[in-house]
Amino acid sequence: MSEFPSLKNAKQKLLSDLKELGIETSEAEREATLILSEITGLALAQQILQETRPLTGDEAIRLKDIANRRKQRMPLQYCLGYTHFMKAKLTMTQGVFIPRSDTEAVVVLATELIQNKDSQLIAEIGTGSGAISIALLQELPKANITGIDLSPAAIELTRLNAMQNGVIDRLALLLGNWQEVLPMALDAIVSNPPYIPRHKRDSLAPEVANFEPELALFGDDPDGLGFYRSFAKIAPQHLKNDGFAVLEFGDEQDAQVSLIFRKSDWRNVQIHKDMTGLPRVITATCPIKSA
Ligand code: SAM
Ligand code: GLN
């Protein structure tokens, strides 16, 4: 008999460890399958077919390493070193925000609004891992994007992910505060900015509060809406006539965000829901420019 556990026993131990952390059963099953798949290279069906095969020594060491990190409540995506966002597989490193499926709505809406236009010059504010820009470049073969982030780690990870997904030739990257480096004459600006009010820190899951970068999470101003206030004033100068914005916002921020844009004379202000049915994205056309 091998000194190492069988795939089946290793998975059961992992499942009970994950459930002990308070992770709900179906999510624990999903995580255990992904972790086993990462260390063995086997998809779920193969894991079941080979359930009596013992782990190799190397596999056992990697499993222990990943399980130990996950037990510290490190997000699974950092433990595995990758995640998926729409059609992209993205390398994930600690220090850079993990893309959420809610954000797919930003990509879907921006794609619909720009796909029939002749000119598709887009900027993304706050690229993080590159999720939005890379997904947009995959959807829009004629688009060119300038990605901006204040975090050097985010810019480097976006560059790596854009290379790995074959879209780096249409992505320019700028390190800096968006207010200082945003290009001119854009057709569209997209962003999932930091928007969580700082006072909500204690209500965040430990995976988020202890591991994700503060710069990516917390918005300026007590209500977290500082970004939208600055953006509504500054962005029009950077957009062409009829240029538009597609921006994500947080829970219960729809009425306030929409008011900020209406008050600054943005046109066609519309709120859209994410895949869970919650208001999550605003689209708006920039104010009419005086000649
Ligand atoms: N777009 C990615 C996504 O959806 O997964 C990341 C979004 S994350 C919520 C926000 C990003 O904005 C972070 O990467 C953060 O570093 C960046 N950021 C925060 N303040 C910024 C600023 N003033 N200028 C440029 N980027 C900024
Ligand atoms: N959706 C993230 C969360 O709730 C927050 C992202 C953001 O501030 N843009 O953890």
N/C terminus separation: 82 Å
| Unreliable residue stretches | none
Number of domains: 2
CATH-derived topology of the largest domain: Rossmann fold
The assigned CATH architecture of the largest domain is 3-Layer(aba) Sandwich
Which kinds of small molecule does this entry bind, naming each only once? S-adenosylmethionine, glutamine
Largest sheet: 7 strands, mixed
Strands, count: 9
Radius of gyration: 21 Å
Strand content: 15-25%
CATH class of the largest domain: Alpha Beta
Strand order of the largest sheet: 5-4-3-6-7-9-8
Anisotropy-based shape = elongated
What is the string of helix and strand elements?
HHHHHEEHEHEHEHEHHHEHEE
Average residue-wise pLDDT: 97
Count helical runs: 13
Tell me the name of the CATH homologous superfamily of the largest domain: Vaccinia Virus protein VP39
By secondary-structure content and strand pairing, the structural class works out as alpha/beta
Helix content: 40-55%
